[in-house]
């Protein structure tokens, strides 16, 4: 879309840019000053001069990006960047995820990043922020996406794991290594058996624990001396581990996938999985509607996901709606994994 000179946030080839503040939000090309909503790879990249992020996500961000020049702020704490008032507010997506509130010249814009409105014991809950313009994702912006309750999902995961353990086979559950894996760890019944995690998962567990998030004990495969433990284990691994030699050590096993994409039966069938569990760290269709309405914004800009559908629906509600073209959507890789 064409820029409006008065816009507080504009889409540029390097990322979402705030002209009066001369900073970027989640830029995908190297910039001097970057405000980061959360540490997923499509939003937090290496190579920027200075970073600003929520303090509660510091350990996760450093675990993913290494040595960076990072300024941390508490949720709700305002800083002024070139005359622009900036504050970060909980997005409910993963540990440290934030919405960026930008205030200048009597106007307020909110860049929400990725978010969910449902409960999650591993991160601060989404907080609506009133604004004139709300910039939203739409990863699951279709009416078919309506998440079951956590009690329902984790009840099913526990029952599946317990049945497999009773039959003497490992339960391999594919999930995103950052955010999803820790949410699962914090919510399953760790009394069923040992929990083994892939090498991509454990560094994030360490960062979560160091931040004060309670997670049950986990083992890397290198720490398992008694291989018979695998027969009762829940094994958490990223989707990329499917079909790799790493899996062979578990012998005969059941496999499942925890993702919002599992709402569609075809996604599970195409992966030839034993089970699909509907669990997402993004807002479902009602959650998106709820968050947008709670912002009070009359203008809404959609960045990624089901963009045309969301823009059309917003216009039908009488709102001014448009889209920014961005490079967000690492979730597309997860979708491809689910559909493969």
Give an account of the 3D structure:
The chain is α/β, with parallel strands linked by helices and 340 residues long. Helices cover 23% and strands 24% of the residues. It is built from eight helices and 18 strands. It has helices spanning 58-65, 150-166, 180-187, 202-210, 265-271, 285-295, 307-316, 331-339; strands spanning 10-12, 15-18, 23-25, 33-35, 50-54, 70-73, 78-81, 84-90, 98-104, 107-111, 133-138, 170-174, 195-197, 234-237, 253-258, 275-277, 299-305, 320-323. A seven-stranded mixed sheet has the order 7-8-9-10-11-17-18, covered by helices on one side. Strands 1-2-3-4-5-6 form a six-stranded mixed sheet, with no helix packed on it. A hairpin with a 7-residue loop joins strand 8 (84-90) and strand 9. The relative contact order is 0.15.
Question: How would you summarize what this structure contains?
Answer:
This protein is α/β, with parallel strands linked by helices and 340 residues long.
- Rg, nearest Å: 20 Å
Please tally the helical runs, counting DSSP H or I stretches of 4 or more residues: 8
Mean pLDDT: 94
Overall, the morphology is globular
Helix content: 10-25%
Structural class: alpha/beta
Low-confidence stretches: 332-340
How far from one another are the termini?
33 Å
Q: Give the amount of beta strand, in percent.
A: 15-25%
Strand order of the largest sheet: 7-8-9-10-11-17-18
Order of helices and strands: EEEEEHEEEEEEHEHEHEEHEHEHEH
Count all strands and give the number.
18
Largest sheet: 7 strands, mixed
């Amino acid at each position: 879309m064409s820029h409006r000179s008065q816009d507080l946030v504009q889409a540029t080839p390097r990322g979402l840019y705030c002209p009066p503040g001369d900073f970027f939000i989640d830029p995908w090309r190297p910039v001097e000053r970057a405000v980061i909503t959360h540490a997923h790879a499509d939003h937090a990249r290496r190579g920027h001069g200075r970073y600003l992020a929520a303090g509660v996500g510091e350990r996760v961000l450093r675990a993913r990006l290494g040595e960076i020049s990072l300024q941390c702020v508490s949720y709700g704490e305002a800083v002024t960047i070139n005359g622009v008032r900036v504050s970060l507010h909980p997005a409910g997506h993963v540990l440290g995820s934030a919405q960026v509130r930008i205030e200048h010249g009597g106007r307020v814009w909110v860049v929400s990043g990725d978010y969910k409105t449902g409960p999650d014991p591993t991160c601060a809950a989404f907080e609506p922020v009133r604004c004139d313009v709300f910039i939203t994702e739409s990863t699951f912006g279709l009416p078919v996406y309506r998440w079951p309750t956590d009690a329902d999902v984790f009840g099913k995961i526990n029952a599946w794991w317990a049945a497999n353990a009773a039959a003497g086979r490992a339960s391999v559950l594919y999930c995103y290594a950052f955010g999803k894996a820790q949410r699962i760890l914090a919510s399953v019944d760790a009394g069923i058996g040992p929990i083994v995690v892939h090498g991509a998962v454990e560094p994030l567990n360490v960062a979560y624990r160091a931040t004060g998030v309670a997670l049950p004990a986990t083992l890397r495969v290198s720490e398992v001396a008694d291989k018979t433990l695998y027969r009762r284990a829940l094994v958490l691994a990223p989707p990329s581990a499917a079909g790799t030699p790493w899996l062979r050590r578990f012998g005969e096993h059941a496999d499942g996938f925890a993702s919002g994409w599992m709402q569609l039966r075809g996604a599970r069938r195409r992966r030839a999985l034993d089970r699909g569990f509907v669990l997402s760290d993004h807002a479902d269709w009602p959650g998106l509607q709820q968050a947008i309405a709670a912002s009070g914004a009359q203008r809404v800009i959609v960045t990624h996901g089901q963009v045309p559908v969301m823009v059309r629906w917003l216009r039908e509600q009488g709102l001014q709606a448009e889209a920014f073209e961005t490079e967000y959507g690492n979730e597309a890789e997860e979708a491809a994994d689910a559909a493969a």
